[in-house]
Automatic annotation (TrEMBL), chains A, B:
N-terminal signal peptide: none
EC numbers, comma separated: 2.7.2.4
Protein name in UniProt: Aspartokinase
Pathway: Amino-acid biosynthesis; L-lysine biosynthesis via DAP pathway; (S)-tetrahydrodipicolinate from L-aspartate: step 1/4; Amino-acid biosynthesis; L-threonine biosynthesis; L-threonine from L-aspartate: step 1/5; Amino-acid biosynthesis; L-methionine biosynthesis via de novo pathway; L-homoserine from L-aspartate: step 1/3
Organism: Listeria booriae
PANTHER family: ASPARTATE KINASE (PTHR21499), ASPARTOKINASE 2 (PTHR21499:SF68)
Catalysis performed (reactions): L-aspartate + ATP = 4-phospho-L-aspartate + ADP
Top-level taxonomy: Bacteria, Bacillati, Bacillota, Bacilli, Bacillales
Matching InterPro entries: AceGlu_kinase-like_sf, ACT-like_dom_sf, ACT_Aspartokinase, ACT_dom, AKii-LysC-BS, Asp/Glu/Uridylate_kinase, Asp_kin_monofn, Asp_kinase
Assembly and interaction partners: Tetramer consisting of 2 isoforms Alpha (catalytic and regulation) and of a homodimer of 2 isoforms Beta (regulation).
Function recorded in the entry: Catalyzes the phosphorylation of the beta-carboxyl group of aspartic acid with ATP to yield 4-phospho-L-aspartate, which is involved in the branched biosynthetic pathway leading to the biosynthesis of amino acids threonine, isoleucine and methionine.
Binding site for ATP: K7, F8, G9, G10, T173, D174, R184
Enzyme class: transferase
Keyword terms, alphabetized: Amino-acid biosynthesis, ATP-binding, Diaminopimelate biosynthesis, Kinase, Lysine biosynthesis, Nucleotide-binding, Repeat, Transferase
């Protein structure tokens, strides 16, 4: 007998009809002979409605009271889902975060899970019950209700799977799995059967927020097999695991891409004036995220530094840099908008040094100019013209034969 | 420094605007130098909305899961009220039933409070915070969320006042207090400054459910001074206490009345066939409430028994009695509809034997026929024609000079 944790987000339990379908899916897993734990979020727009009420009272409501308020959302869903299972004559019991033994840091709105005392859940599972747990919430040591912040319900599911030593944690969502690239733009994108945790982290922006990075990291640390699959359909999704089976021999597993990138370049007259680390600490102090970084020194003793940011952060970035010109001692600032990032991702890359060259060649052969390059052990990213982004993704998808 | 508990029902916190006004009232009490605990119900129609969702899933949802579902209603209100107090720069903290230390019987939907561990609340009060507690809910010894059933939030408030040894428990509602009689029908009805617990129990049907009898009994047992007063107005209401001050010397304190009463009469040919207790156990088994009971034996050895019921229960009452005719051995059944009950209430009655006679005389002088009489230590009830009910109440209100 196996033990599985299923997680359903707000959209998947957004209506009474969908809650009934969620019950059906839990029953399918139960009928396979599994012990089943279901983690659910608040119903669809209910969190927004609660937030709106709070904002009618205060522009800046207390985080402690927001947790008190928002944690009711999941509590509604768990009780309704439990009723839906009873209605089909299955034994089920719902637990809030604190009833499920989920202890967190004493930090309102953005707590991390510290420990899970699984005794209550284990007892219920042993009695043959389907257990339903409120996602996104827990309790601090001083008995305060806390919420987990971004990606919260995914994290609850993965942490419960770890604490319960589950065989699998399935994240049931509105996509059928993780794809080789974004199927909305690349027609021959293919659903992957397997990816590694690291690949998943790099592919995170494919399929628009399928899984929160914090949950993937948690799963990686505790070696929990994660599945991304469609809600309310009995079809296997994509498994995210450490080890790949033999058939998954492709070096490149997926193509990620992202538009609305801007490159900022800082020029110094003398390389001894370059204050590279000061640039990035200054930007970090203003919460400006920097992605690809390239540092160059020309033969004449001049120096420059290029980095990419999201275009929407450009005005603030330039303002911050200009404000600190004296400290940073640079001579000139430049920026280029309308760029995009296109990356190939795959764990096998580290042992296949020719992959990057193969990528550059394919892009160049197709008249796609490469403006920046950045590499890691499992990823090679290039910056290209925004207009050529989709074609670049398509070229690379074909070049590395991801359709098959 | 005093300590007060304020309770606001669903209507009094039904909108964001009303929650803000509730905050104002709590602040007024706080500014008087009191420690303030506020108990609130779910916002207006929110409980109905939750019940509707449950009924979309199941005709007969699990009571345990209903408690899980409905207890979110008060949790929303407490957090919003706390935010409203913060917004006016007062320190406030909200607690769910379990956080407030309210332990109940392990009975879903209709639990009674067993114990309150006030440590958390006392600490917060000592720190100068206004404490907000979710009414209607608690936790059982096995960590299940429970709700208190009818009159729940009133009971929470009174029980908290007892456990905290508060100086007063104010039930803030949509009436300004308890009246000598129903002001909707009797123009010169007057707000009472004081009534005793027992009088309050007898006057309970005045002002349509101002206070739940369970809460009044609780207050009586623990000698908690109770106040019924208007929400959102800074005006004294009616105090409900054991001892009356000297100025309250009237023997009759109030006139209660109720229409839609039916008298049922059972006739036996032989008095030895009379199965009086069997009649009432049979009716009780079918959850039929009986009010006034009169048993008569005629000189010829015949016997009869009359009792009143609410008219809406008539069809079922007759059906039950007919079904059990063989066991009950009666000869004939009669019923008279369109009756009303009019009562005078006052603790002083027990030591004033002439009061009942005074009442009957006043009614008779005004051509109001008395069809049944029932007396207790603090109440005399008469059954009259429904058409004459209001006039009877007015006559008695004038006779006993309640206007002054």
């Amino acid at each position: 007998m196996g033990r599985v944790v299923l997680k359903f987000g707000g959209t998947s339990v957004g209506t009474i009809e969908k809650i009934k379908k969620t019950a059906d899916q839990a029953i399918r897993e139960f009928k396979k002979g599994n012990q089943v734990v279901v983690v659910v979020s608040a119903m669809g727009k209910s969190t927004d409605r609660l937030v709106d009420m709070a904002l009618e009272i205060s522009d800046n409501p207390s985080k402690r009271e927001m947790d008190m308020l928002l944690s009711t959302g999941e509590q509604v869903t768990i009780s309704l889902l439990s009723m839906a299972l009873h209605e089909q004559n299955y034994e089920a019991v719902s637990y809030t975060g604190w009833q499920a033994g989920i202890t967190t840091e004493p930090i309102a709105s953005n707590a991390r899970i510290l420990d899970i005392d699984t005794e209550t859940i284990q007892d219920a599972l042993t009695q043959g019950k389907i257990v339903i747990v409120a996602g996104f919430q827990g309790i601090s040591a001083d008995r305060e209700i806390t919420t987990l912040g971004r990606g919260g319900s995914d994290t609850t599911a993965v942490a419960l799977a770890a604490a319960l030593e589950a065989d699998k944690c399935s994240i049931c969502t509105d996509v059928v799995g993780v794809f080789t690239t974004d199927p909305r733009y690349i027609k021959n994108a293919r659903k992957l059967n397997q990816v590694t945790y690291d690949e998943m982290l790099e592919l995170a922006n494919l399929g628009a927020g399928v899984l929160h990075p914090r949950a993937v990291e948690y799963a990686k640390n505790y070696r929990i097999p994660l599945e991304v699959r469609a809600s309310h359909e009995d079809e296997a999704g994509t498994m995210i695991e450490e080890e790949m089976t033999m058939e998954n021999t492709k070096v490149v597993r997926g193509i990620a891409f992202e538009d609305k990138i801007t490159r900022v370049t800082i020029h110094w007259d003398k390389k001894e004036n370059m204050r590279v680390s000061k640039v990035f600490t200054t930007l970090a102090e203003h919460n400006i995220d920097v992605d690809i970084i390239i540092q160059g020194i020309t033969g004449l003793g001049h120096g420059n530094l290029s980095f990419t940011i999201k275009t929407k952060a450009l005005l603030e970035t330039l303002a911050v840099l200009e404000e600190h010109q004296e400290t940073l001692q640079y001579a000139k600032l430049e920026s280029e908008q309308n760029l995009a990032k296109v990356s190939i991702v795959g764990s096998g890359m580290v042992s296949n040094p020719g992959v990057a060259a193969h990528m550059f060649e394919a892009l160049t052969d197709n008249d796609i100019a490469i403006k920046m390059i950045s590499t890691s052990e499992i990823k090679v990213s290039t910056v290209v013209d925004e207009k050529k982004m989709i074609r670049a993704a398509q070229v690379l998808h074909d070049t590395f034969e991801l359709e098959d």
